[in-house]
Design a protein that fits this description.
Elements (H helix, E strand, L loop, with lengths): L1 H22 L23 E9 L5 E5 L3 E4 L4 E10 L5 E10 L7 E6 L5 E3 L4 E10 L9 E10 H5 L14
Parallel strand pairs: 1-9
Antiparallel strand pairs: 1-3, 2-4, 4-8, 5-7, 5-9, 6-8
Length: 174
């Protein structure tokens, strides 16, 4: 029984991730190859794309988008740049977690290349420009005219250490 419970707990995260990827639930976006998307910008339609960046509490970073937003045409290939800087004098590893709103837009937002796909390593004080290349599928419903792409930047060491700032079960983070 204990082994079965451990196995279920171990598999729960990948199952949830797969569910979110397929349905767009929780703002997760699809990561398809460009060949799976009908490329050819619809010049008759514009969608306002907003960028929001957040740094996880206590994370030693400056994190921002290169621009606050952009206007895009469904079916067109676009690139945006995000900038992060390590504020410490030690080596750091970070992970960006994306979200798309409204939730219905997530299935049409196709990231082809993104810094959020892998962890990002930073030397002490290092600043990096990190790109995200994307297409908004031309099949996106007409009622969606604004999309918000947000990223939260996490210090991965905080996810695994037992520092006083890391929330433990039954305790609130300070």
């Amino acid at each position: 029984m204990a082994v079965a419970m451990f196995g279920f707990g171990f598999l729960l995260v990948p199952i949830y991730d797969a569910f979110c990827e397929v349905t767009g639930f929780g703002g997760k976006t699809a990561n398809e190859a460009a060949t799976n998307v009908a490329v050819g910008a619809d010049q008759n339609r514009e969608i306002k794309l907003e960028f929001v960046t957040t740094v996880n509490e206590y994370a030693p970073w400056v994190f921002r988008s290169g621009v606050d937003g952009m206007t895009v045409h469904p079916g067109g290939l676009y690139e945006a740049t995000f900038i992060a800087r390590n504020l410490t004098d030690s080596h750091k590893v970070a992970q960006a977690v994306p979200s798309v709103a409204p939730q219905q837009a997530a299935t049409y937002f196709k990231k082809l290349e993104c810094f959020c796909f892998t962890t990002q390593e930073f030397a002490p004080g290092e600043e990096k420009e990190m790109p995200v290349r994307f297409i908004i599928d031309s099949k996106i419903p007409d009622y969606i005219d604004t999309i918000t792409l947000s990223y939260t930047f996490f210090d991965t060491a905080r996810l695994t250490d037992n520092s006083p700032h890391t929330a433990q079960p039954g305790h609130k983070a300070r």
